[in-house]
Each structure stands twice: as C-alpha cells, then as structure tokens.
Design brief:
This protein is of the alpha/beta class. It is built from 12 helices and 8 strands. α7 packs across α12 and α8 packs across α9. It binds NADPH dihydro-nicotinamide-adenine-dinucleotide phosphate and (2S)-3,4-dihydro-2H-pyrrole-2-carboxylic acid. Belongs to the pyrroline-5-carboxylate reductase family.
Length: 276
Amino acid sequence: MKLTILGLGTMTGAILAGALEAGAVRAEDVTATTRSAASAEKAASQHGVTVTSQERDERANHAAVAEADIVLVGVKPKDMVATLTDLAPSLRPEAVVVSVAAGVTSATMAAVLPAGQPIVRTMPNTPLTVGSGVVGMAPGPGVTEEQTTAVRALFEGSGLVVPVAEEQLSAVVATAGSAPAYVFLLAELIAAHGAEMGLDAASAEAMAAATVKGAGIMLQQEGARAEALRKAVMSPNGTTEKAVEAFLDGGMGDLVNRAMDAAAQRDKEMAEEFGA
Ligand SMILES: NC(=O)C1=CN([C@@H]2O[C@H](COP(=O)(O)OP(=O)(O)OC[C@H]3O[C@@H](n4cnc5c(N)ncnc54)[C@H](OP(=O)(O)O)[C@@H]3O)[C@@H](O)[C@H]2O)C=CC1
Ligand SMILES: O=C(O)[C@@H]1CCC=N1
C-alpha cells in the first residue's frame, strides 16, 4: 500500500508515527509534503520518510500522489478546498482521499475532486502517536469495502477506530478530536495549583502527568467504568468527596457540556465557512 500525506504536520505526524510503529505501513511506501522547506526537513528527520515542500517545488503535491493508494490530507480546514482543487487532476481514480480536517464535509470535497473519487472523512486525535488514539471514520458514498478496510488498517494498530455517520463527526470532534486538550488543561491546572500549595513545580507537574496516565490506564482495563473508579477513590466524608463536591457544585457538569457543544458548534460553522 502506497501512502501519501499532504501536509505532514501535528495530526498526520501522529497518525504516521502510530502506523509506522504498528507496522501498518512501511517508511519506504510513504511520500509526504509540507508547505515550507523547513517543515519538510524537520518532518523527514522525525519520521524517516521522504518529504517534499511546496516552497521548493510548487508541483510537490502532484508528484507525491502519483502512485498513491491512499492520500491522507492534513492541511488546515481553511486550506482544504484550494489544496484539493489544485490536486484533483493528478489523483489516480482509485486513490482514496482521506481527510482529518474538522468541519470540511465530504460534499465540499466531492465538489472539487473528480467525479467518483473515493473519499473517507475521519476525526482522529493525537494520542495515536503513542498507540492510544481514537479515530471516528465515515466512509463516503462509493467507497468500497476493500478501500474502507485499507484505510482502517492505517489506524487500527494505534487506536480505537469507531465507524460513524458523517453527521456524527461533530460529536466525535467534541468527544475525542479536541478532547486530549481538555485532559491536558486539567493536568496544567492541577500542577499549577499543586505548586501554589507548596510543591516544587517540577514535582507537581510530574504528579499530575503520572496521575492522568495511571487513571487512563485504569479506565482501559476490562470492564472498567469511570463512575465506579471515581467512587472507589471517594472515601465517605474524605478528601476526594470534598473535591468532587466542589467540582460539581461549581458547575463542572454544565461546563463540560458547554465546552463540548462549543467544539461541535465550531465544527458545524467551519463547514459553512470553508465549504466549496
Ligand atoms: N492537531 C490536532 O489535534 C487535530 C487536528 N485535526 C485536523 O488536522 C488538520 C491539520 O491540523 P494540525 O496537524 O494541527 O496542523 P499543522 O499546522 O501541524 O499541520 C498542517 C500541515 O499542512 C502543511 N501544509 C499547509 N498547506 C499545505 C499545502 N498546500 N500543501 C502541502 N502541505 C501543506 C503544513 O506545512 P507548513 O508547516 O510548512 O506550513 C503542515 O505540515 C486540520 O485540518 C485539523 O482540523 C484533526 C484532529 C486533531
Ligand atoms: O482544534 C481543532 O480545530 C482541531 C480539530 C480537533 C483538534 N484540533
């Protein structure tokens, strides 16, 4: 399987790292591009694959897709339509175009790609880079079973792949795509206040990071439920009960809902903003 990545950045870099580590693709079967020569150089040395840049060769994207079975597009949502419009004449008809972009619909992509070009929309998250990611995957119309399997194989070794309808991708952004940032924010806040309470900053950061990691691993154990795990930490009238009460009395439930609704809403807005 030949894989081309247009826009080898943070998200597609995480996907590539996970896929290489899992053996889903071989480095010699990957070609990738970036906009700037500096990013190309950095990504090539980071991942050990061939990376060309538009800065050095304005036909770089066209050359990169010449033999591609899967074209993973990792440019920003605002750049999707222009990138695909430019690329369209060079795609092999059977190449599957896989998007990771928030808010760019398959209808928008289909409008600028050759008729019948197979399209798969996904919403991944960056923990794929360490083999613990999530990918919501919505194959477009006309994508064969074999093509869906090939795209799925790219992610499967490095995370949980959840087939969804395209309309559900806004919920996947809110629940998984953006969600690592919520956890990182919580870790930041815990570490910062631990330091304010008198711990040295490095120890507080290390404690927050190890706690998030440990809690994540416990959540992944067979049959684990977040609520039961939380209650096991909460001794009656103990310290945790006081902390959890403070969170809930402070409106954390509503706050999480509002944050996730804001992410999903932005995804929908981008569909309008960056539509073809
Ligand atoms: N970051 C995340 O956690 C997630 C991101 N996504 C989606 O991933 C996509 C990329 O985001 P992210 O990885 O954060 O962004 P990055 O800026 O890290 O990556 C974008 C990449 O695209 C390159 N690029 C820009 N224009 C072109 C072009 N015309 N041709 C080839 N390459 C180009 C950039 O090169 P250069 O560096 O030279 O500008 C860069 O390598 C977005 O659509 C986003 O919605 C989805 C889920 C999670
Ligand atoms: O913030 C964003 O728009 C992208 C999509 C999900 C995570 N990062």
